Amino acid sequence: MSDNHSSIISKSVQLLDILAVSTNSLSYTELVAATGFSKSSTHRILSILVNEGLVEFSESEKSYSVGPKLITWARAAWQKTDINLIKDIDLIKLRDESGMNVAVSVLVENAVLFIRTVDKQSVRYAPKVGQQSPLHCTAAGKVFLAFGDPVERERLLSEIEYEKFTDRTIATRAALQKELVGVREKGFASVKGEEMLQISGIAVPVTDYQARVVAAISLWAPSKLATIEELIATAPALMDFGKGISARFGQMV
Q1: Same domain, yes or no: 197 and 85
Q2: Which stretches of 3-150 are assigned E, i.e. beta strand?
């Protein structure tokens, strides 16, 4: 492979990484600034990625987001793992019984990666399959931190940037560690407007036969459709659901 081709692949991966972890679509100018690439190089690579379906361009907003092919790849990859033990029919039932949106996520490096979503209400800013979110301001992220391996937890806590997305975001390690103690005591995590002001959610862990957290299952809703109190009221049922799914992974519950 020539150095030129290798450079294009490397830059393509960097662009896709930036789009995957962003909670919003990004403009061409924002991508140039985020990557540090030249304008011509950024434009050329984006054109290739859009043409291949790996990136999607919105004409109305003049912005870029993760494309349908990348989402298909993510779904196919996770279907080859034990995560496929979490069936769509289970998630649909959970959605219908709770009246909330449902999401399944896994821990990838130092971020939450959404691998399944079943929505009750269609919302523009709903998480998409293949999208990543930070650990410190999401219910799923707090689940991975609270119930995960203690050594891994310390590593993750030291690497989190503690970006403050809203005035409710937990922005220090000490405050987050205190929160995680409560999460372990309750058996579930909750957030109210920490990543996005208009979103509240709760999450529980799915564990395997070695009590390792393999996934998080979340219920969430826009604040205009459900309060955090209404979401927390569904926590007992969600914890039972998580235990039932964990049993499929061989965890004694």
Answers
A1: yes
A2: 26-27, 55-58, 63-66, 101-108, 111-118, 132-133
Q: Are the C-beta atoms of 234 and 241 separated by less than 8 Å?
A: no
Distance CA 69, CA 159 (A): 30
Number of structural domains in the chain:
2
Walk along the chain (253 residues) and give the pLDDT tens digit of each residue: 445 566 888 999 999 889 887 768 899 999 999 999 999 999 999 999 999 999 999 998 899 998 888 777 766 655 555 666 678 888 999 999 999 999 999 998 889 999 888 888 777 777 778 888 999 999 999 999 999 999 999 999 999 999 999 999 999 999 999 999 999 999 999 999 999 999 999 999 999 888 889 999 999 999 888 999 999 999 999 999 999 999 887 754 4
Of 66, 85, 117, which marks where a domain is finished? 66
Q: How far is CA 248 from CA 72, 115, 207, 223, 237, in A?
A: 25, 18, 9, 33, 17
Which amino acid would we find at residue 193?
G
Q: What angle do CA 34, 18, 191 make, to 5 degrees?
A: 115
Instruction: Examine the domain organization and report whether 188 and 115 are in the same domain.
Output: yes
Question: What are the distances in angstroms from CA 33 to CA 26, 28, 91, 108, 117?
Answer: 11, 9, 39, 25, 31
Q: Kindly list the distances between the CA atom of residue 50 and the CA atoms of 44, 47, 67, 195, in Å, as whole numbers in the listed order.
A: 10, 5, 7, 28
Q: Are residues 135 and 32 in the same domain?
A: no
For 214, other C-beta atoms within 10 Å of its C-beta total 20
**Separation between Cα atoms, residue 104 and residue 129, nearest integer Å:** 9
Give yes or no for a contact between 140 and 203, defined as CB atoms under 8 angstroms apart. Answer: yes
The C-alpha R_g of the chain, in whole angstroms, comes to: 19
